[in-house]
């Protein structure tokens, strides 16, 4: 591509954006930027010989995936584009599918309303939490590709790591194969977590805490409200969910109501749109809860972690005893994510310890 071509202009804009922020781009980010330059060239060159391939960027948190995606979206001179957080898009899709459930072609109608003449769709933070979502996502991706839309998505997971639960993973393999057939898969998995560097914006999830046993002194030190005696019903989608209380962007709820009742991942996704500070009370020894409750808790932590919510988890047991050797799949990931919270115990109630 020439220095004045659409792709070169996008690449130059991304490099200028990094320089303006004093970022030093690593090899993974540079490869992603070059690939996005080719995508821009293919999208914007009149009479290009073939449909541009979609792109799946994956890597751990803090590797610059969203920075690259956002810079590309801002730089590409294409009117028919849409950039949306995947969970927000998925929630809207659920709503529109419900509205057109009796039409016989609900998916096509929903996407026509949501995308119109869109040629480039950018999903940030694509993730899967349960098999119900997975089956709908399979239909969604097939419909997007059938419309000729170029898809650019970021994820913390490689395609073959999606829906890792062995009970369900095999059923999702056809969709993984579809992603790998229709999308170029590119790792943005450098060694540096840029969110953890000095001067980086603080990560809300890491600002939360695992609190044992939740004394008044501990709560005061964290600015966490006492556990309310009563509760209230909160409308989530088309039903009511029992919670302990809400104040501003803070939601206070119990493990029992969130995980032992018939809640779903979509409920958690709906709640994080309105509440980004969560206080979850009464976490038991997880292995004593039902398998369904354990899986809901795993899904809940995934949502709160992926959405970078500030979480205060209250338990009578320290983390290693509360999240113990459950046989539910993915529990090791949950334990790892919760270990990133500050740990506060009664024996050290006057100080917070931040995990290394």
Structure description:
- The protein is 42% helix and 19% strand.
- It has 356 residues and is an alpha/beta fold.
- The protein folds into 2 domains: 6-194, P-loop containing nucleotide triphosphate hydrolases (Rossmann fold); 203-343, Rossmann fold.
- A 6-stranded mixed β-sheet has the order 9-10-11-12-6-13. Strands 2-3-4-1-5 form a 5-stranded parallel β-sheet. A two-stranded antiparallel ribbon has the order 7-8.
- α6 (131-146) links the parallel β3 (120-126) and β4.
- It is globular and about 65 Å long.
- The mean pLDDT is 88.
The radius of gyration over CA amounts to 22 Å
Q: Report the portion of residues in β strands.
A: 15-25%
> Residue-averaged pLDDT, rounded?
88
Number of domains: 2
Indicate the multimeric state.
single chain
Features:
42% helix, 356 residues, 6-stranded mixed beta sheet, 14 helices, 13 strands, 5-stranded parallel beta sheet, Rossmann fold, 2 domains, 19% strand, alpha/beta
Brief write-up:
This protein has about 350 residues and is α/β, with parallel strands linked by helices. The protein folds into two domains: about 5-195, Rossmann fold (3-Layer(aba) Sandwich); about 205-345, Rossmann fold (3-Layer(aba) Sandwich). It has helices at about 5-20, 25-45, 65-75, 85-100, 105-115, 130-145, 170-180, 205, 215-220, 255-260, 265-270, 290-305, 320, 330-340; strands spanning about 55-60, 80-85, 120-125, 150-155, 185, 210, 230-235, 240-245, 245, 250-255, 275-285, 310-315, 340-345.
């Amino acid at each position: 591509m020439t220095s004045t071509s659409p792709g070169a202009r996008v690449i130059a804009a991304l490099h200028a954006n990094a320089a303006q922020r004093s970022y030093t781009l690593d090899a993974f980010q540079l490869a992603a930027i070059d690939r996005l330059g080719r995508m821009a060239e293919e999208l914007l060159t009149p009479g290009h010989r073939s449909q541009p391939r979609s792109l799946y960027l994956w890597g751990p948190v803090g590797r610059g995936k969203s920075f690259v995606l956002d810079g590309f979206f801002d730089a590409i001179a294409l009117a028919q584009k849409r950039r949306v957080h995947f969970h927000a898009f998925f929630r809207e899709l659920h709503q529109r599918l419900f509205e057109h459930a009796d039409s016989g072609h609900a998916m096509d109608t929903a996407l026509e309303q949501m995308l119109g003449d869109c040629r480039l769709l950018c999903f940030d933070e694509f993730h899967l939490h349960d098999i119900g979502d997975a089956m709908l996502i399979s239909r969604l991706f097939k419909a997007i590709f059938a419309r000729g839309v170029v898809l650019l998505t970021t994820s913390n997971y490689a395609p073959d790591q999606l829906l890792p639960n062995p009970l369900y993973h095999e059923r999702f393999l056809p969709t993984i194969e579809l992603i790998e057939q229709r999308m170029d898969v590119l790792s943005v998995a450098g060694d540096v977590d840029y969110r953890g560097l000095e001067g980086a914006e603080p990560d809300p999830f890491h600002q939360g805490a695992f609190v044992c046993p939740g004394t008044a002194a501990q709560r005061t030190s964290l600015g966490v409200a006492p556990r309310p005696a009563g509760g209230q019903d909160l409308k989530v989608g088309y039903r009511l969910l029992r919670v302990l209380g809400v104040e501003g962007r803070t939601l206070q709820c119990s493990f029992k109501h969130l995980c032992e009742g018939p809640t779903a991942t979509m409920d958690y996704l709906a709640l994080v749109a309105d509440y980004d500070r969560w206080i979850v009370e009464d976490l038991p020894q997880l292995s004593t809860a039902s398998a369904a409750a354990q899986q809901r808790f795993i899904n809940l932590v995934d949502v709160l972690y992926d959405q970078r919510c500030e979480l205060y988890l209250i338990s009578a047991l320290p983390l290693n005893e509360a999240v113990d050797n459950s046989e539910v799949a993915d529990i090791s990931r949950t334990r790892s994510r919760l270990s990133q919270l500050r740990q506060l115990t009664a024996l050290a109630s006057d100080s917070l310890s931040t995990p290394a």
